[in-house]
Write a structure and sequence with these properties.
The complex is a heterotrimer. Chain A is an alpha+beta fold. In chain A, 27% of the residues lie in helices and 19% in strands. In chain A, the strands form 5 sheets. In chain A, strands 8-9-10-1-11-20-12 form a 7-stranded mixed beta sheet. In chain A, strands 13, 14, 15, 16, 17, 18 and 19 form a 7-stranded mixed beta sheet that branches. In chain A, strand 4 and strand 5 form a beta hairpin. The longest helix of chain A has 19 residues, at 481-499. Chain B has 9 helices and no strands. Chain B has helices at residues 8-30, 67-103, 105-119, 123-134, 138-165, 168-175, 180-216, 228-235, 244-271. By secondary structure, chain C is mostly helical. Chain C has 2 domains: 18-73, no CATH class; 87-305, MetI-like (MetI-like fold). Chain C is 80% helix and 0% strand. In chain C, helix 5 runs antiparallel to helix 6, helix 6 (127-141) packs across helix 8 (170-200) and helix 10 runs parallel beside helix 11. Chain C starts with a helix and ends with a helix. Classes of the chains: A alpha+beta, B mainly alpha, C mainly alpha. Chains A and C meet through helix 6 and helix 13 of A and helix 2, helix 3, helix 5 and helix 11 of C.
Chain lengths: 541, 279, 306
């Protein structure tokens, strides 16, 4: 859902591309100090780590709080954070962490094992009304806490101040990734209780930054946490200005008044900037873990016929859609984006072939076509893309009525088995919560997500694939990693080749604008897990 | 009615209205392209809309569609909504106003309190909420606008009916045993015809603007059906890169609503004796 | 007088209650499930049901409305599911910006309306008069969003005289206020003109003119006071008109007022905020009308006597 708020797109970049070892010029050396200005159009919803799940607040929450483990900047490699070390039992079921004694909350108190336990329980607790409960499903007792029948999670123990022990119900290869999510951030119970429902407006954490001021609808001011237990950040602070149209933000950035235009470069301005002399210094343009797709409700006639779904796949002119968004994406062949482990470079997907699509429809007894509904989000460019899709469908005889709605309404429509038909995912495109192929299965193609109000808008729930997915996720030993990716690769290729529940349309790149004075490699402006890496960015001398 | 052409501005306005009506009726024959057609050469290689030129006279929009064709078909949308929505609004307003004004009593009071309630809603906000709620098609947008716009008519008709029903000739009719229906049809209604005509014209201007505004905010007529407002909605962030996409439809909206306002105002002067001779 | 006031206040409260009921019912049928929204994409059916219970959305509708009303009585407008914040706090934080914009917009309207209205009245039936009256029509016929984009294009993007968007300095307020005010200025000009003509046609004014009283004195001493009443009444009504206009103007100029808040909420189907802003806007409208009524007797002795 972080993704879900996405207007343009979120996070995530070149996994494994790594930091190229290019020598830095003197003026590019990281320096300490400086306050930068960041802009966004929409106000921050909350800075509560148990709740915040949109792409604007995600990186800010990341900077305000710390978690047991973290990602190395600009990469997807897990490194110690609150936990200075950990061990995993041979059966993969027990994780034991030892805390860094230097870690303190900004209210002065040490971070203890009990805080970690409390914080994760708080994320799962239905009273918190957070979106994250399901991520911790592997922990023993999570289910009872989530349904309100238990007040704590039995599988999280704090035997002493510095030790946290997790017991899992089944092995989970992604468990460390889950603990690196914002939802696992440590929060001090006393501050949470003092702030009540408004902890998200008065956050207290142990992260690199603290929140000094928040004027709703106008600005937020963050400053460096001088007692931070790790050695970053470089900047003294950042000021987030709200209510700035992306177009205006980019103009101000060109004038030097803004350092990072958080919403990216709007389509109307993109070509002009891309073709300008400043482009090299101001545009950061990277791939991310994103796929934009059309879901096809496999439980509904005539989409229950795989030939119809394959015909849809062949009817869409992806090249032209990519042109409509000024080439800021690559046509997609499959569910997983190219950067994701498990991506099948040898699988070419369905070709654009109108004649073949018509033939398939005729074979399915739909020579004269049919009428259906295409749901899409109401923010640009999604209604436009929906119209391009509509025209492509019309060419093979499918008459699709477009319903461009607010995001919650799209979710309500797609997540309703009887209502869901075709849904364009743009603006809500799936961007991984963590860099693992399993995150592209469970909620969006697995039976678990095929519930009312869920995200599996294809209502695809196949026993065979479900078993294969469960087996893949049980392969939690580090030495099985590559084998596990291989299993996932086969799952995703087979789903698309045999069942075609989606039309994967494109993999969108993320484009961010930064001022010329900002330094550091591209991957910390489009970080795989943090969106913008406030801890790592710096101002050049 | 010859008075209509006495003022030069009104004459021009009538001509503009005629043009819009012609554009709307003849759109399929006048438009060089189908309004929903997205030709491959309608966008530059980088995906930018094309400026006005030899093939696409007024340029193309961000999907590569011909702007002129969309404007012509958009005239249909605006006129249909203008006539239907405003017709319904005037009808509702007349009925409510006459009933409340003539019947009076509890029914009348209830109707007028309801009108007060509607007056207390921020009209545009109400329209946006209704439109977002009902998922607009052409007819829904017309209905939403009618639901918001009848209030003003109702109040004016109410006041006029009240005034009329206390006039001597009505009282005399009643004393002679005329039924309510007779009085309403033969005596009250004819006096309200000028009001209906004036508001029927002025209201079109308001309606065209409201439709454009709703479409501009994305809750009006849904693409790919063209409307002058949603053409601007789809291109608003391009107002610098492709100003023709915003300001040509903008000028068309202004010309249309201005024309209906001018004609309506002239009609008011001609038809409304209390206004005549002033100014 | 106090009795009348009390009656008007009671009426206003009744209207607001009606607005609350209508809005509540309308928004209840919005096809978006706040519980699914809050529970997020990792939730299962049980979690969504738990959240629904937490939010009180599983209660019968009348009870939900009653809870909303009792909250309202304590100044509690509920919490936004998306902004995760008290709606009242969000609105309060944004009201000053909207008031600034409205005040500036009214200033533009009244100033332009007075200047052009007087000009037209004094030079009645001249070319200038007809031009002003036609321009007034152009004003009231303009689509506000096109005016907003045009001013933005000419004065901000091309000439660079004013900032493109934002809030804080006098320069920021100019374009939004002009956009808001140009539309209404047409109405004011027409109204001022006809109020002026009424006075100028009065016998005592003709006499005064004949005795050599200057135009300036006629306008200031006699005509203006006569136009004041309709202007004040109109301002009261304008407050309501503006509650809609600010949605468009704030959306285009990125003005951090309640119009922008409402617009974002509508795009995100954020029901509690839409409810809250609608109620607050209605409150503005009702208060505007009350003020217009209350100001009338003070300004016009003829009404005072009744």
């Amino acid at each position: 859902m972080r993704t879900s708020w996405l207007k343009a797109t979120t996070a995530v970049m070149a996994l494994g591309a790594g930091l190229a070892a290019t020598p830095l010029r003197a003026e590019d050396m990281p320096t300490q100090g400086g306050t930068i200005v960041v802009t966004y159009k929409d106000d921050m919803a909350t800075l509560d780590p148990a709740i915040g799940y949109d792409w604007q607040n995600w990186s800010m929450i990341n900077g305000l709080f710390s978690r047991l483990v973290d990602y190395k900047f600009g990469t997807t490699e897990i490194v110690p954070s609150l936990a200075k070390s950990w061990s995993i039992s041979p059966n993969g079921l027990v994780y034991t962490f030892t805390l860094d004694p230097k870690a303190t909350f900004t209210n002065g108190r040490n971070v203890t094992a009990a805080d970690v336990k409390y914080s994760i329980e708080r994320s799962v607790n239905p009273k918190t009304q957070g979106p994250a409960g399901g991520f911790f499903h592997s922990i023993v007792g999570q289910d009872r806490m989530a349904d309100g029948s238990a007040a704590t999670i039995a599988g999280i123990e704090a035997p002493d101040e510095a030790t946290v022990k997790f017991t899992l119900a089944q092995p989970d290869a992604t468990f460390l990734n889950v603990l690196a999510l914002n939802f696992a951030s440590a929060v001090p119970k006393e501050a949470v209780e003092a702030a009540g429902a408004d902890f998200g407006k008065h956050p207290v954490g142990s992260g690199a930054f603290r929140l000094d001021e928040w004027v709703p609808g106008q600005h937020l001011v963050f400053s460096r946490n001088t007692n931070y237990f790790r050695d970053r950040p470089q900047i003294d602070g950042f000021r987030v200005e709200i209510g700035q149209e992306p177009l205006v933000a980019v103009l101000r950035l060109q004038k030097g008044e803004v350092d990072i235009a958080g919403d990216g470069i709007p389509p109307a301005k993109y070509l002009e900037i891309k073709n300008s002399a400043d482009a090299k210094d101001t545009i950061v343009d990277r791939e991310q873990f994103e796929t934009s797709y059309i879901t096809i409700n496999t439980a509904k006639k005539p989409f229950d016929d795989v030939r119809v779904r394959q015909a849809l796949n062949m009817a869409i002119n992806k090249e032209r859609i990519v042109r409509i968004i000024n080439g800021r994406a690559m046509p997609a062949t499959q569910v997983l984006p190219p950067l994701m482990p498990g991506y099948d470079a040898s699988y070419k997907g369905y070709p654009y072939d109108v004649a073949k699509a018509k033939q398939l429809l005729a074979d399915a007894g739909l020579k004269d076509g049919f009428s259906t509904t295409l749901y899409a989000m109401n923010t640009d460019p999604n209604p436009r893309i929906a119209q391009a899709i509509q025209q492509d469908l019309a060419a093979v005889g499918i008459k699709a009525e477009i319903k461009a709605l607010a995001q919650p309404e799209v979710i309500a429509a797609g997540g309703n088995k009887d209502q869901s038909a075709l849904t364009w995912s743009g603006g809500m495109g799936w961007i991984a919560d963590f860099p693992d192929p399993s995150d592209f299965y469970g909620p969006i193609l697995g039976c678990g997500g095929a519930i009312t109000g869920g995200w599996n808008w294809s209502w695809f729930c196949d026993k065979g694939f479900e078993d294969r997915a469960t087996k893949a996720d049980a392969m939690s030993k580090p030495e099985d990693k590559d084998a596990r990716y291989g299993v996932w690769k086969a799952i995703f290729t087979d789903i698309q080749a045999q069942q075609a529940p989606w039309v994967p349309v494109f993999n969108e790149r993320r484009v961010v604008a930064r001022s010329k004075r900002m330094g550091g490699p591209d991957q910390i402006y489009i970080d795989p897990t943090r969106v913008i890496d406030y801890e790592a960015i710096y101002v050049k001398k | 009615m010859s008075g209509l052409t006495e003022r030069p501005a009104t004459t021009v306005a009538l001509a503009v209205i005629l043009l819009v009506v012609l554009a709307a009726t003849l759109a399929p024959w006048l438009a060089p392209f189908a309004p929903e057609d997205q030709p491959f050469d309608g966008l530059s290689l980088e995906g930018a809309p094309l400026p006005p030129g030899a093939k696409y006279w007024l340029g193309t929009d961000t999907l590569g569609r011909d702007l002129l064709s969309r404007l012509l078909f958009g005239a249909r949308t605006s006129l249909v909504i203008g006539l239907v929505a405003n017709g319904v609004a005037v009808a509702i307003g007349m009925v409510v106003g006459i009933v409340a004004g003539y019947v009076g009593g509890v029914t009348g009071a209830t109707l007028m309190r309801f009108t007060d309630l509607m007056m207390a809603f921020p009209a545009l906000l109400l329209a946006i909420v209704l439109a977002a709620l009902l998922h607009p098609s052409l007819w829904i947008v017309a209905l939403v606008i009618a639901l918001v716009n009848w209030v003003q008519v109702a109040r004016i008709v109410y006041t006029e009916t009240r005034g009329l029903s206390e006039r001597d000739f009505i009282l005399a009719e009643r004393a002679l045993g005329a039924g309510n229906a007779r009085i309403l049809i033969h005596h009250i209604a004819p006096h309200l015809v000028p009001t209906a005509i004036v508001w029927g014209t002025l209201g079109i201007a308001t309606t065209v603007l409201l439709e454009a505004t709703l479409s501009f905010l994305g809750v009006g007529v849904q693409p790919p059906q063209p409307s002058w407002g949603n053409i601007i909605y789809e291109s608003q962030s391009y107002f610098q890169a492709a100003p023709w996409l915003v300001f040509i439809p903008g000028a068309v909206i202004l010309a249309t609503s201005l024309s209906f306002n001018l004609v309506g105002d002239t009609l008011r002067d001609l038809l409304d004796p209390t206004q005549r001779g002033r100014g | 007088m106090p009795l009348i006031l009390a009656r008007r206040l009671a009426q206003a409260a009744g209207i607001l209650l009606g607005v609350a009921l209508v809005t509540f019912l309308l928004l209840h049928y919005l096809p978006a499930d706040p519980a699914a929204l809050v529970a997020g994409r990792s939730a299962n059916a049980q979690m969504i049901a738990n959240v629904r219970h937490q939010l009180g959305l599983d209660l019968p509708l009348p009870l939900q409305f009653w809870r909303y009303l009792t909250g309202l009585a304590q100044g509690n407008l509920g919490r936004s599911y998306i902004q995760r914040s008290e709606v009242a706090a969000l609105i309060v934080a944004r009201i000053p910006a909207t008031l600034v914009l409205m005040a500036a917009g009214i200033l533009v309207e009244v100033a332009l309306g007075l200047v052009f209205g007087i000009l037209a009245a004094v030079q009645r039936n001249s070319f200038a008069d007809r031009l002003v009256m036609t321009l007034a029509f152009v004003g009231v016929s303009s689509p506000q969003f096109v005016v907003a984009l045009l001013l933005l294009y000419v004065f901000a993007a091309t000439l660079g005289w004013f900032p493109m968007s934002g809030f804080g300095t006098l320069r920021h307020v100019v374009l939004p206020a002009l956009t808001l005010g140009l539309l209404g200025a047409g109405w004011y000009a027409r109204m001022v003109r006809s109020a002026m003509i009424d006075v100028l046609n009065q016998d005592y004014v003709r006499t005064a003119r004949a005795k050599g009283l200057s135009w300036r004195r006629v306008v200031l001493r006699h005509a203006l006071p006569n136009a004041a009443l309709p202007i004040v009444a109109m301002i009261g009504i304008d407050v309501g008109q503006f509650m809609g206009g600010v949605v468009v103007v704030e959306a285009v100029y990125g003005w951090p007022g309640i119009g922008q808040l409402a617009w974002q909420a509508i795009q995100q189907a954020d029901v509690p905020i839409i409810m809250g802003v609608t109620l607050v806007s209605s409150l503005f409208i009702v208060m505007g009308n009350l003020l217009a009524d209350a100001a009338a007797p003070i300004l016009d002795p003829r009404i005072r006597g009744r």
